[in-house]
Amino acid sequence: MNQTVEFKPDLKYTYATGRIRVLETKLLSSSKVEKMINSRSISDVLIYLEDTAYDDTVGEMKDPGKYGEFVKIERLISFDLMERLILDPDVKHLFRIPYDFHNLKVLLKRRLSEVATSIVLSDFGTIPAEVMKTAFETDNFHLLPEFMREVIGQALAQHYLKKNLKSMEFLIDNLEYNHLLFLSKKTNIPFLVTYVKIKIDLTNISTFLRIKYFNTKDNVEEALIEGGNLQLRFFLQLISESPESLPSFFSNNPYLYLIEEGVRKIIEDGSFSIFDKESENYIMNYMKLSRYVTFGIEPIVAYFVSREQDLNIIKMILVGKLNEIPTEEIRQRIPITFN
Amino acid sequence: MILDTNPNRMELLRLKKRRVLAKRGHKLLKDKQDELMKQLLELVDKVKELRKKVDRELAKATGRYLFAKAGMGIEFLESAMLIPGIRIELTIEEKSTMGVKTPIFKVQTEGSIQNYGFAHTTGELDSSLLAIERVVEELIHLAEKEKKLQLMAEEIEKTRRRVNALEYILIPNLEDTIKYITMKLSEMERSNLTRLMKVKDIVRSR
Description:
The complex is a heterodimer. By secondary structure, chain A is mostly helical.
């Protein structure tokens, strides 16, 4: 982790930071995760979750196969806590906006495709799902905020211009990250700006490797997202390089390790599991920097991100155990935890 | 068993012709059965290999998909999978192998299975879906071969019954009947001769 970031103490968050420091101890630890991975049965996995932040929800989980419900409840708890502890609405929006964009994509896709399909909208966005649905059903887009109307306009133009849903999705992803970057800069919190930039970089590296390795016919320039630390022209210069030689081009940037490890596995058997895991690890290592903050919003954000990571870890272990996947195979996909 | 026939010369000739035909049919069916068995055994080995490969790859692809699904938000996965980007057209043609009509599946794929943006999906999802796409083609190939195997096995069973019916029922019955008619005709001839001799004797004694 070579990222450096400036922290400014914020006394508005004195109580919140104290509360989070207590809650952090209940997050999954690496030793607990190891025990869960080595468990012989699902019930053993659930027993190890008893003394954690997920104790109550796990206790009510009747069927481990329906872990989706468990994740939904835990995410509700996370957002509820965030609502109560974070005072800056832009920070809250930073984590809710992706769900608005998800709803937008689903509604646009349904509208533009000829396939009649049932859709599931997320309730975690800043705009209530019902409002978005009504806006699309009645063509009354004034029910939506201005930035969303702008996105819809651009997305439709792109769709009719390119006649391609994927191309439209690339544009929406670009606009989503631009908006996230704009929000993070608006908060004036360097930790958040860097976080969004890291997310953009990791998404771009992943996109680049996916296009390159799977040889999709996608336009790299269209699929990449602007605003990260790595410039788009850097990726465009690498387009003709062989996958084996890619790590050498990242020797001077903080993503070298994840590129080396990720590309090795991709070349070996086409699996992105290590790359995905190392990307999660990179973000988690960045979140760990919040430990140096005495009072501020950073520990709350780190706690929120860590909870999401924990939920992914629990899901992966449950999936592995439910499908009797060998322990070693589960272990190699599990990212690090905050503790 | 002797067939229900009139013991006369016409019938004897007809039965002899039938016996020749039955024996020729029996030989042909026996050859067909042997050839079908040979082809079936060759196919069984190929199907066994292919099934093992498909099972192995399907388990690998499904494992990858399950982990990709677990590692992503369920909403984002559903959004990615909302509109299928790939269209598979399956046409079925027929080919005759030793009189057995077996299907030939021809697969035509259009579009790409990766019909989603990259920002909220993972490379492992692409990898699992592409693996599943490859397995589906092999699965169709396997289905074609397994169907061929099933039809050939049914045909072998049918041929075996026919061969057995000819070998153990029809040909022995025909031979028994031919023997019976031959004996009956000889008997009639002998009886006729005796009668004629007796008549000749009576005429001579007068």
